[in-house]
Design a protein that fits this description.
Elements lengths: L1 H27 L1 H11 E10 L1 E3 L11 E7 L3 H7 L6 H8 L5 E5 L9 E7 L9 H4 L2 E2 L2 E2 L2 H5 L1 H6 L1 E9 L13 E3 L7 E4 L3 H9 L7 E7 L5 E7 L7 H6 L13 E2 L5 H11 L7 E3 L2 E4 L2 E4 L7 E3 L1 H7 L2 H9 L3 H10 L7 E3 L2 E2 L8 H4 L2 H8 L6 E2 L1 H12 L3 E3 L4 E5 L13 E3 L3 H16 L14 E12 L5 E11 L6 E7 L5 H4 L1 H15 L2
Parallel strand pairs: 2-10
Antiparallel strand pairs: 1-8, 3-4, 3-5, 6-7, 8-9, 10-22, 11-12, 11-26, 13-20, 14-17, 15-16, 18-19, 21-23, 24-25, 25-26
Length: 529
C-alpha cells in the first residue's frame, strides 16, 4: 500500500514538473510576452505632428492653430465633467457606448483630471493659412503639392505622435491606481526654412480684396530671395473639391504661370538700345500710328504724343516710339538681351515647384518686321511669368545682377541652426551705369507722370505699368487685357522688387498700380525705408 502511494506521488510530481516546464516555455516565448503585454495596456494615439515649414525669420507657416483633445477614461465622474466642453456630442456618445478610453475634441476651457487628460495639438493648416500655393497640402499622409511635396521625406520623417497608455484589465477596463503614461507632448523644432517673410506674405495676400485673379511677387533685390508670393484666387486645403471645380482654377500658382507681357518689356528694348549705342536723346514724333510691312500699329493715344525722347516715351508708354527704336537695334542683339535677362527661361524653386519658361520669340520670328515691332513693346508671341518679370526688375534695382530666384534657404533640426543651405546664384547681365540709366526711366514713369497711381505716400518708388493685349475677347466683343506693374523701392537704397499681375484686369495703371502702391506703403510701415 505504501509503495503504491509513493508511486502515485512520484507520478504526480513528474506530471507537475512537465506541466511547469511547459508553462515556463510558453511564457518565455516572445510572442506570448508581447501578446500578454498588449492585453494589459491600451495605447491611444491622439495625433501626429510633422516637421514645420518656417519663414525666413523662423516663424511657423504651419502648425500654428491649436485644437484641444481630451483622452477620457469614461467613468461617470469624468463624463459629467467633460460633457459641457465636448465639441461634437454625437461623436462623443458614439464612442461612449464601448465603455473603453477614447479621445474627443473639446473646448480649450476644459479642465483635466485623473480620468481626463488634455492634449493641445497643432493643426497642420490654419483657418487663414498663409502661402497655401507655396506650402501645398498633404493627402493620406503624403505631400501632394508645394513644399509639402518637395520636402515630403524630411517633413514626414521628422514627426511626433502624442499618445496615452492605460493599464487595463481582461475586460478592457482601466485599472485604478495604476499610472497612465503620456508621450509626445514636446514642441516640434525641425523644419524647412523658406525665404518667405511672414509679414510680407500676409500683405501680399491682403491684395486679394483688390484683384480677383492674378499674382503678386515680392523679391529681395540684393539676394533674389522671394519674400512674398501670392496667387489669386486662393483656396482652402479643407475645401479642395470646391477648388477643383472652380472655373477660376485657384489651385494654379499664377506667379509661375506665363502671360502676355505688354509695355514692361519696353525696359528691355531700352537696354538693347543702350547696348546698340543709342542713348536717351533718340527722338521720334508719334502721330498715333505707324505702318510696318503693310500692317498698321496703333499707339494707345490715337491722337499721338508728338515729338518724344526715350524718357518722355517711357513716361507716356508710347508704343510707336519703341517700334521706331527697335528698327535701329540689331535683331541678334535684341534677342540676346532678352534671353540674357531671363525671358524664355524656366526656374526651379524646389523639387516639383517650377515656373513656366514663358515664350521668347525665335530669331526667325524676329526677322519678320511686324513680329519685331510687336516684340519692341511686349506684344505678339512674347509670354513671361510674374516671377520672371520680378527677377528682371530686381536686376535693374541691383545694378545689373540677375539672381536665380530662391524660395528655400535650407532645413533645421532644432529650429536654430541651418543645414542644407541653398546657394544664392547670380549673373551680371549688364553694367552698373546701364542699371542707373534704366532706373532713371522707371523713376520717370512713376514720379514724372502725374497720372501714375503707383506713387506711395511714405517712400519713393520706381516702376513701369503694362496693359497687355491677349487677342481674346469677352462676350461684349471687348478685348481682354492683363494689367501689370513692376517696380522697386526705396529709390536711394533699393530693397524690394514688386510685380503685380491683374489677370484680365484691364489697364495696368488702374488695376495694378494702386496695389503696388499699397504693398510698398505697408512694407515701409513695418520695416521702414
Amino acid at each position: 500500500m505504501y509503495k503504491r502511494i509513493t508511486a502515485v506521488a512520484v507520478m504526480f510530481a513528474v506530471l507537475f514538473s512537465v506541466l511547469y516546464m511547459r508553462i515556463y516555455v510558453i511564457m518565455s516565448d516572445e510572442k506570448y510576452l508581447e501578446t500578454s503585454k498588449n492585453q494589459s495596456v491600451r495605447r491611444i494615439d491622439v495625433g501626429t505632428i510633422n516637421a514645420n515649414i518656417y519663414d525666413r525669420n523662423l516663424f511657423k507657416l504651419v502648425n500654428n492653430d491649436v485644437k484641444t483633445y481630451a483622452a477620457i477614461n469614461p467613468v461617470p465622474e469624468a463624463i459629467a465633467e467633460i460633457l459641457p466642453f465636448v465639441v461634437d456630442a454625437d461623436e462623443f456618445y458614439s464612442q461612449l457606448v464601448y465603455g473603453s478610453p477614447f479621445v474627443c475634441e473639446v473646448d480649450p476651457k476644459a479642465v483635466g483630471s485623473e480620468d481626463i487628460t488634455l492634449f493641445r495639438m497643432p493643426e497642420r493648416y490654419g483657418e487663414n493659412q498663409l502661402a497655401e500655393h507655396v506650402v501645398g497640402y498633404v493627402r493620406d499622409g503624403v505631400g501632394v503639392t508645394g513644399i509639402e511635396s518637395a520636402y515630403d521625406e524630411f517633413l514626414r520623417s521628422h514627426s511626433e505622435t502624442s499618445s496615452i497608455t492605460y493599464g487595463i484589465d481582461g475586460q478592457g477596463n482601466v485599472l485604478q491606481g495604476i499610472s497612465k503614461s503620456v508621450d509626445g507632448q514636446t514642441e516640434m523644432k525641425a523644419g524647412v526654412v523658406l525665404t518667405i517673410d511672414k509679414n510680407i506674405q500676409a500683405i501680399c495676400e491682403l491684395m486679394e480684396d483688390k484683384v480677383s485673379k492674378g499674382a503678386v511677387v515680392v523679391m529681395d533685390v540684393r539676394s533674389g530671395d522671394i519674400l512674398g508670393m501670392a496667387s489669386f484666387p486662393s483656396y482652402s486645403t479643407d475645401k479642395l473639391s470646391d477648388a477643383l471645380s472652380n472655373e477660376d482654377a485657384p489651385l494654379i500658382n499664377r506667379c509661375l504661370y506665363s502671360y502676355n507681357v505688354g509695355s514692361i518689356f519696353k525696359l528691355v528694348t531700352s537696354l538693347a538700345a543702350f547696348e546698340q549705342g543709342i542713348d536717351e536723346s533718340f527722338l521720334y514724333e508719334c502721330t498715333g500710328k505707324t505702318d510696318i510691312s503693310d500692317q498698321t500699329f496703333m499707339c494707345h493715344d490715337h491722337s499721338g504724343h508728338g515729338k518724344l525722347d526715350m524718357t518722355q516715351a517711357m513716361k507716356a508708354s508710347c508704343n510707336t516710339y519703341f517700334i521706331e527704336l527697335s528698327k535701329n537695334i540689331d535683331t541678334n542683339l535684341f534677342y540676346d538681351v532678352a534671353k540674357r535677362l531671363g525671358f524664355g527661361r524656366a526656374y526651379s524653386l524646389a523639387s516639383g515647384i517650377n515656373s513656366s519658361g514663358g515664350n521668347l520669340q525665335t530669331m526667325e520670328e524676329l526677322d519678320i518686321p511686324a513680329e519685331k515691332a510687336n516684340f519692341s513693346f511686349g506684344q505678339g508671341k512674347l509670354l513671361a511669368t510674374p516671377l520672371q518679370i520680378c527677377s528682371f526688375t530686381a536686376s535693374i534695382a541691383n545694378e545689373g545682377k540677375l539672381y536665380n530666384p530662391r524660395l528655400v534657404i535650407g532645413t533645421t533640426e532644432n529650429g536654430i541652426d541651418m543645414d542644407n543651405i541653398e546657394e544664392q546664384k547670380y549673373t551680371q547681365v549688364f553694367d552698373r551705369d546701364t542699371a542707373f540709366r534704366l532706373q532713371d526711366l522707371m523713376i520717370a514713369a512713376v514720379n514724372g507722370n502725374q497720372e501714375s497711381n503707383a506713387r506711395p505716400s511714405n517712400v519713393r518708388a520706381a516702376g513701369k505699368t503694362s496693359t497687355a493685349q491677349t487677342g481674346t475677347f469677352d462676350e461684349k466683343g471687348e478685348e481682354i487685357c492683363h494689367g501689370w506693374i513692376t517696380g522697386y523701392f526705396p529709390l536711394n537704397q533699393p530693397k524690394y522688387a514688386v510685380t503685380v499681375l491683374c489677370e484680365g484686369g484691364g489697364y495696368g495703371n488702374e488695376c495694378a498700380a494702386p496695389i503696388f502702391k499699397d504693398i510698398a506703403q505697408r512694407i515701409t510701415d513695418i520695416y521702414g525705408k
